[in-house]
Amino acid sequence: MQPIIEPMDERDLETVARLRLAAFFEGTGRTVEEDAAGLRKLVIGDGFEAALVVRDDGLPVGTCLLVRHELEPAHALTPWLAGLVVDTEHRGRGIGTALVRATEAHAASAGVETLYLYTWEARDFYAALGWTEVEMFEQDGATMLLMSRRFSL
């Protein structure tokens, strides 16, 4: 499957929220409705922030976001690549890489010089894509890694 990246739209919200809950928010009490509401704000936003998806047979199987704020108040940096997730059955096909590259391209086209992200488990994945380690820190009892990617404008 050659990943085709598209902007998220209203029909994607529930499915993407379920993907995100399973990947990032299990056991937190966050609901599908709460996550979908946050995604909806990105979908109808000002065009700077972005919510991208890859669909298979019309259903989203992966997503990645460009957001102004992430993990408050750990760092006052902006903007952020956030929420990269690919459905487990669709991993290993280049979807994650394609989503990261599309998010980077959107950020660069909007004039972003440096993009940031938080990760721990995926640090090798992002390093292979040219992201640089900035700082390790603790957030809610977990080790996190702040990474950045600079663009030449």
TrEMBL record:
Its EC number(s): 2.3.-.-
Stated name of the protein: GNAT family N-acetyltransferase
Species of origin: Mesorhizobium cantuariense
Keywords: Acyltransferase, Transferase
InterPro entries: Acyl_CoA_acyltransferase, Bact_Acetyltransf, GNAT_dom
Pfam families reported for this sequence: Acetyltransf_7
PROSITE patterns assigned: GNAT
Domain N-acetyltransferase: 3-152
GO molecular function: acyltransferase activity
Domain of life: Bacteria
